[in-house]
Amino acid sequence: MKLQINDLQNFKVKQEKISCLTAYDYKTAQILDEAGIDLILVGDSLANVFMGLDSTTKIGMKEMIHHTKAVAKGVSRAILISDLPFASYQIALEEALYNSVKLIQCGADGVKLEGASDFKLEIIKRLKDIGIPCIGHLGYTPQSSLLLGMGRIQGKTEESAEKIFHEAKALEKAGVEAVVLELIPSELAQKITEHLKIPTIGIGAGIYCDGQVLVSDDMLGKSPKVFNFVKKYADLNTIMKDAFINYIKDVKAQ
Ligand code: KIV
């Protein structure tokens, strides 16, 4: 049976951890769905792992629409969330709302956006009003990498930890269904998780979050460089390369 966005809250109440991975194509989404994943994210990390770009700031709605449509075809049970890409929501409220509608019409069950400024909180409230579920994203927010630096841990000082804590509470108040916590100290993620009614989903934020998310290509061993918190569950790089080498050998031998 198809999971609904409200089930995220039920997971937290039942103290069952939420499993989440990214997908960018139909077949991966289908395999993830059959494996029983709870939440599939069409992450804008597709810029890095699918397109080989060095930043998520280099893709837009065109790419997210294309990949959300493909992933949606493969999903029957999991909740499907699609990232609002860089500059698709930060500039104008109406643009943010229309772009969210587009992702929903491609088959997403909700959208994810980064940050918690007053403007972002307004977007979240308006999305709720339209009927579009939204997930927040705090800590290291890759769309701000030009300001934050690439892959830097956030919330290490008391002041910045306090800021992230208050942002998490503000996101909850504005109406997000869950919040992704990326690259923050485990104790801060634990404090946020304990104070919020909505679930937290961590990536590089320790074990105390209500769920965990990873970039699929990283945990499958397809990405050349990954953070040290990423556990590799397979070595697809080697498996694929060996298969290609063997195929080439066979063809050459004919
Ligand atoms: O784009 C992405 O893959 C993400 C996850 C890292 C949470 O936002």
Structure description:
- The protein has an eight-stranded parallel beta barrel, surrounded by seven helices.
- The chain has a single domain, classed as TIM Barrel, CATH 3.20.20.60.
- Helices cover 45% and strands 14% of the residues.
- The model has no long low-confidence stretch (mean pLDDT 97).
- Helix 5 (93-105) links the parallel strand 3 (79-83) and strand 4 (110-112).
- The chain is globular.
- The chain has helices at residues 7-14, 26-35, 46-49, 61-74, 93-105, 118-130, 145-148, 158-174, 186-195, 216-219, 236-253; strands spanning 18-22, 39-42, 79-83, 110-112, 134-139, 178-182, 200-203, 211-214.
- The chain has 254 residues and is an alpha/beta fold.
- The structure holds 3-methyl-2-oxobutanoic acid (KIV).
- Residues 22, 41, 43-45, 83, 180, 182, 203, 213, 215 line the site of 3-methyl-2-oxobutanoic acid.
- 3-methyl-2-oxobutanoic acid binds at residues 22, 41, 43-45, 83, 180, 182, 203, 213, 215.
Number of strands: 8
**Terminal CA distance:** 49 Å
Overall pLDDT confidence: 97
> Hetero groups bound?
3-methyl-2-oxobutanoic acid
Note the main sheet.
Answer: 8 strands, parallel, barrel
Structural class: alpha/beta
> Percent of residues in helical segments?
40-55%
Radius of gyration from CA coordinates:
18 Å
Strand order of the largest sheet: 1-2-3-4-5-6-7-8
β-strand percent reads 5-15%
The CATH topology: TIM Barrel
Architecture, according to CATH? Answer: Alpha-Beta Barrel
Order of helices and strands: HEHEHHEHEHEHHEHEEHH
- State the shape: globular
CATH class reads Alpha Beta
* Number of contiguous helices: 11
Overall tally of structural domains: 1
